[in-house]
Amino acid sequence: MKIFPLSAAPDTGHAARRATALRRLIGAGSAFLLTSITLSAGAAELGLSITSENCEIALAQSALPARLRGRAATYVWTGDDYATPKTEPGQFHCIVARNHPTSIIPICVTDSGLDTVLQGIIYKSRLAMQGVPVDEAEKRFAERAKNGEFTAPAAPGISYMMSSHNHIYRPQNDSFLNVPAHVMMFAPDVDPEVIGSATFPGAIANPGVPIAIDSGIHAYIVTFVAEAADSGEVVEQCGDDWQPPARVTAEPPGDAQ
User: Which of 164, 165, 228, 250 is the least buried, fewest Cβ under 10 Å from its Cβ?
Assistant: First the structure.
């Protein structure tokens, strides 16, 4: 699939809106991308790397059920910034987010989050790829949030994270977390008490039970799913080292409950 730099995006219709949105350094990704839930190998032991543009596209789209991937636009890290496919805009916007230069966080956002939720993900991912530590990225976001430089999604939507390959960096102990497949529904300012939010161990053990993640305008209601989306294309494009890991059933660290 061909891609083009953001600066070369056609300036018409939806495509122009998408390019404009991508240039805005506003918003914030969910803290779920930064302090997630299941134990995995230490950072030095992850042993996975994105080997090509096609590998990254496959990884990004692995967050989405296979039946929806034909409607997805994908954003690929080029070494300096994210670029978009030179195709018609999609109903879903898929990206390999980062909270560390070597983390791998496939996520697909519905079009209703293009100008809001996706901007937070891109903003924090850019900082991560520049080597900005998680805490500093959070600080920079907080400053922008305080200044009102981002908005809540105006319509319902979902961030799909159904990939088998959610390898999220955990700075507290310099490790990566392999997070089970889940979906995250936009829920600005959700109150955990109001929805009866589960604990992480309870939600992992009983997929479908809701958890409130994060707070404020980019908060989510999250549910784990029984099975991850198909990752055959990831193995084909990235290599046999990318065989899906076994489903994680261990309880999360205490500070993540």
Answer: 250
